Amino acid sequence: xxxxxxxxxxxxxxxxxxxxxxxxxxxxxxxxxxxxxxxxxxxxxxxxxxxxxxxxxxxxxxxxxxxxxxxxxxxxxxxxxxxxxxxxxxxxxxxxxxxxxxxxxxxxxxxxxxxxxxxxxxxxxxxxxxxxxx
Length: 134
Description:
Helices cover 92% and strands 0% of the residues.
């Protein structure tokens, strides 16, 4: 084989190696670009999900605050209702006591009045009716 042929084979081999190296480099570059695109897409999805999570967290916090306010208002209404009930019970007791005092005065008036019948039936019926109506 001539020297020219050997040089041509060697040069051809070097060119072939250079082409293979270029092809491998290009393939590697394409793989890296594809991975970069995939990483970018994943980052975008992560940002979107972060925004959604923050929105959901904010909504949950608003709902929680609303529930706490409603609970506090309910407790306040319950306390007011309890107070009103106690006040109504005190008034009922006072009214009952006043009715008892009125009956006692009626009884005393019957004892003192020489014209009142012994039983005082009319006054007793009137006092009892007033007590039931109130």
